[in-house]
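Fig. S4 source data, part A: sequence.
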Amino acid sequence: MTAMLRTLALVVALALACVVATDARAGAQVEEQLSSSVINGLAKSIADFPPPANYSAQPAVRAWIDDMSKRLASRISDPMTRRDLLETVHYEATRAGLDPQLVLAVIHHESGFRKYAVSIAGARGYMQVMPFWTKLIGSSGQNLFSLRTNLRYGCTILRYYLDRENGDYFRALGRYNGSLGRPEYPKAVMAAMSRYAPETPIRAAAAKGRPEPPAPLRGEAREARSGGAAAAKGRPEPPAPLRGEAREARIGGAFTLTPTAAR
């Protein structure tokens, strides 16, 4: 009986460990001593400024939300929840000076788009923000499971790490995940950015297995290509247009060689 209880306890422990591990794949931001000026700057950055009422109606924002909503349908089934998340991602990322695709990629790997995800280290929400940040730059009463609060903190922290690392995404992402110096997390996030890159005709063609259309040629390259196509069909390449004295000399020469043309 004792052996059976021990086995059952082991199975339960393993199951709980798996649940915790799948709740969030995040590491943990490391609490550091920050100067008063940095704390004050970050505190101002996490101030709550909700998006304008017509923010998602802007053509570029609406097109981005429509595109990303299709890609997240398998992860977030409710359309309103999906669009609310995407509007907040776009707004808070833009507000912090970040690429919205980067923020989506971070959420993809940090929480798997689970609002109430909690890591073993205690990081919370979509962007897996560590609770010490609310005490350091905000207030302990702020709820990191709140959509806007979580993304506002997450974007502000990531922007701070990017500035601290002089724009080095590899090191900034390592700091955000608590894995500074290791390549796995930064590489995974940067790869995920391409997964959420906006749709374009070229990307759509590639996804359907069609060759990408050639880039338009200009100037000399276009002329060279036109000449090559003519030669391939057995036609002589058209002569380049002449100007100025060269044109006059050619016209004069033509009349000299064929005097009957003047009659």
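Fig. S4 source data, part B ends here. The two ends are 122 Å apart (CA to CA).
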